[in-house]
């Protein structure tokens, strides 16, 4: 207890130095905990969580081909793939022994009515519905898996409920928040839309849910769309069954009434997607490409997390180096100028071992306090701090990470304490008997 008391008195006699050791230790521990949590979550997101994503692939026009599309020229529907086209491509994929399941998404432009008016801007073309097929788009999905591969981007229902893919009699749609706000639509509202090539044919739907996009694919357009039907907020979502019952799934359509068929393939693992794409290469129509929207959407969702992880890693390295140098400097500053104190202690009967233990405690106590404070702050603020830094992803410090920071921090504290203790160990006992007067007199005689 005597040694502990002496160490505590020394720390209290130098409050600024002691406080600096605590603050530097806390900063290192906090950022190590936070940074470690970010790096762990980023690694998990790109391995374990990525492997759990749906391995889907679609055959869609490339960006270059889409640039040639004119929303008021229905001849562009000649680029649409038919069922016979997909049969040929699917057969080519099977030659490589790739196993897959498939589902369907299909869409057509539809005409607006008084009950639902499309969102437009000053950039929106004023071409008539007879030219464009309508200012809205009716997008259907056969299953929830097809919805996950939505080319307009992933979405979530924020009001009401989602689509019921098992109900063949339902006449339901989902509308975007922006479209609902413009038309004062609520869950339960009824809207009417018209056939793309026959204005006299109309269909009535009930709004069962209001959605919000959670991702933004590269080819998805918003208010910058030239044609209102291409603004993804003007898309109405329904089931494939409802779409077909109302006559939109037709092989006899002309112009914009020809449905844009999108077959979504699902594979057991991501490597099969590459095999499938390679098998289709020779038969793939010009301007089309195989891509995985679910994987693309997911990778876009963790892009911000990856950026934060890269920045955090750099800061951690810099902080470790600068922090280690700062702590080492503070420890040496506390230990080196104390020759007289060491000598007086030894004359008073204290051994080098007890004095070294006192010096070690003077380092050990503030560094451990800083470690504890930083660890708690880092663990408790990991998620809110990551959110504030734009991670767009939940980040939490796991128990394994916390224990890792603890034992590494304790080892570093012990190492610094040993450095302080070595100051006593290397003190030369002979200095207790040296006299500056004898030295000075000898020099004067010379």
From TrEMBL:
Domain of life: Bacteria
UniProt keyword Cell membrane present: yes
Protein family according to the UniProt entry: Belongs to the ABC-4 integral membrane protein family.
Descriptive protein name: ABC transporter permease
Keywords: Cell membrane, Membrane, Transmembrane, Transmembrane helix
A molecular-function term among this protein's GO annotations: transmembrane transporter activity
Subcellular location: Cell membrane
Organism classification: Bacteria, Bacillati, Actinomycetota, Actinomycetes, Bifidobacteriales
One GO CC term on file: plasma membrane
Domain MacB-like periplasmic core: 22-282
Membrane-protein topology: Multi-pass membrane protein
Primary location class: membrane
InterPro entries noted in UniProt: ABC3_permease_C, MacB_PCD, Macrolide_Exporter_MacB
Transmembrane segments: 314-336, 368-389, 401-422
Span of domain ABC3 transporter permease C-terminal: 314-425
């Amino acid at each position: 207890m005597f040694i502990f008391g002496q160490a505590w008195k020394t720390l209290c006699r130098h409050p600024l130095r002691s406080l600096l050791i605590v603050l530097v230790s806390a900063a290192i521990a906090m950022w190590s905990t936070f940074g470690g949590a970010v790096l762990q979550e980023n690694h998990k997101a790109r391995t374990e969580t990525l492997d759990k994503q749906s391995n889907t692939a679609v055959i869609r026009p490339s960006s270059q081909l889409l640039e040639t599309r004119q929303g008021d020229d229905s001849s562009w529907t000649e680029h649409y793939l038919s069922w016979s086209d997909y049969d040929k491509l699917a057969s080519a994929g099977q030659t490589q022994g790739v196993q897959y399941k498939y589902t369907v998404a299909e869409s057509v432009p539809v005409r607006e009515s008084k009950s639902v008016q499309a969102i437009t801007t000053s950039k929106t073309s004023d071409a008539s519905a007879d030219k464009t097929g309508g200012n809205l788009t009716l997008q259907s999905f056969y299953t929830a898996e097809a919805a996950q591969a939505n080319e307009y981007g992933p979405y979530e229902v924020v009001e009401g409920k989602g689509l019921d893919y098992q109900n063949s009699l339902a006449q339901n749609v989902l509308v975007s928040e922006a479209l609902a706000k413009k038309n004062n639509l609520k869950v339960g509202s009824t809207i009417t839309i018209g056939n793309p090539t026959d204005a006299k044919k109309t269909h009535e739907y009930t709004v069962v849910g209001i959605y919000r996009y959670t991702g933004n694919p590269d080819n998805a357009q918003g208010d910058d769309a030239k044609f209102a039907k291409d603004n993804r907020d003007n898309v109405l979502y329904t089931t494939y069954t409802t779409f077909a019952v109302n006559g939109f799934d037709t092989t006899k359509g002309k112009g914009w009434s020809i449905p844009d068929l999108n077959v979504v393939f699902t594979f057991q693992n991501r490597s099969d997607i590459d095999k499938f794409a390679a098998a289709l290469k020779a038969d793939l129509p010009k301007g089309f490409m195989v891509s995985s929207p679910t994987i693309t959407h997911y990778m876009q969702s963790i892009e911000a997390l990856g950026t934060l992880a890269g920045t955090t890693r750099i800061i951690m390295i810099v902080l470790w180096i600068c922090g280690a140098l700062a702590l080492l400097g503070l420890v040496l500053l506390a230990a080196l100028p104390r020759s007289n104190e060491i000598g007086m202690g030894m004359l008073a009967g204290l051994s080098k071992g007890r004095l070294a233990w006192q010096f070690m405690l003077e380092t050990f106590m503030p560094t451990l306090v800083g470690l504890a404070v930083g660890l708690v702050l880092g663990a408790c603020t990991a998620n809110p701090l990551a959110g504030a830094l734009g991670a767009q992803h939940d980040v939490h410090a796991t128990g394994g990470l916390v224990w890792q920071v603890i034992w590494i921090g304790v080892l570093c504290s012990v190492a610094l304490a040993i450095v302080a203790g070595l100051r006593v160990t290397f003190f030369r006992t002979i200095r207790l008997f040296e006299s500056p007067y004898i030295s000075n007199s000898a020099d004067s005689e010379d």
